[in-house]
Amino acid sequence: MSHPTSSRRTPIQALVVAGLSLVLALAGCGSHPSGTGTTDGTGGTTTILIGTLQTDDILPLWAAVADGSAAAAGLDLQIQTFASAQEQTAAVTAGQVDAIMTDMVVPVLLSASGTPMRSVTRLQGAPAGIVVAPGSGITDLAGLAGVPTGCSSPTIMEYIYDKALTDAGVAADQIKTEEIKNLSVRLQMLGSGSIKAAVLPWTLYSLAVAQGNIPLLGVDQAGPYSSTVLAFRDQWLTSQPGVASVMDALDRVWDAEVAKINAAPDDYRALLAAQAKLPSPLDTTYAVRQYPTHATPDQAQFEAVVNWMVAKGYVASPIPYADLVWTGQ
Question: Rounded CA gap, 149 and 151, in Å?
């Protein structure tokens, strides 16, 4: 794929800048008082405003709110679900949320655009896979050479697609995508035959497969490519009283809920369906994934994503891994 010219980079960065028109509206809702209470042994409560998308990545924190374990740990987790990454990005840029469930591309774009973000833990593996329409004649990833595939840029889905096809031996000039930012429209176009293939997040990927589409890159194959992360505004981390204790409490809550979910995943499908607004038939059939315990996001994964973004022209220069993660120091 050819690198975008400088004249193309500004619209490509729409994930960060296009949503900024929402900032004034968000700010009108009132500023969020950072550092409400502490968990540093004083018996106070820390409020954390978290923005997420309609995916399953943050299920352990939804569960922690639902069963009261977050509150018992001194954490008031207020999780807001956004319909699009654009709205979520606008909210964190405006300071209306303290942290976001996101992928490894978004914190790099935000940091490069003046909102430094630090990822405190991984949440899940790579957030998307590839499906092809029945009757497309495509049976493996190499078969996607030259095929315009529904995707969007600059996103982790584009990274996953590029990496998967490159690993399959497809030449760079034969890796083709069709820009379809709206995920629902992307799925509809796949179903109507307007496109032969699409990159979709796991919930819509599962729905596409249930509708008869053929999986080419699934969870097991895509998982090692990258991770979803919980990324905080650096300003919140550096101004939060007792931040190390807060993060320790958050890690303990996450790990405890992960153990419960992994032991009985089907017990959490109804909660996931309600919070992520899973459509039928996923609300009763979606396979709740196994979750990892907390860990600093993988350095090799993050650096590979950053290097890809530089090569594509999405950011001007590499951002060091140490500037993208928080290790408690």
Answer: 6
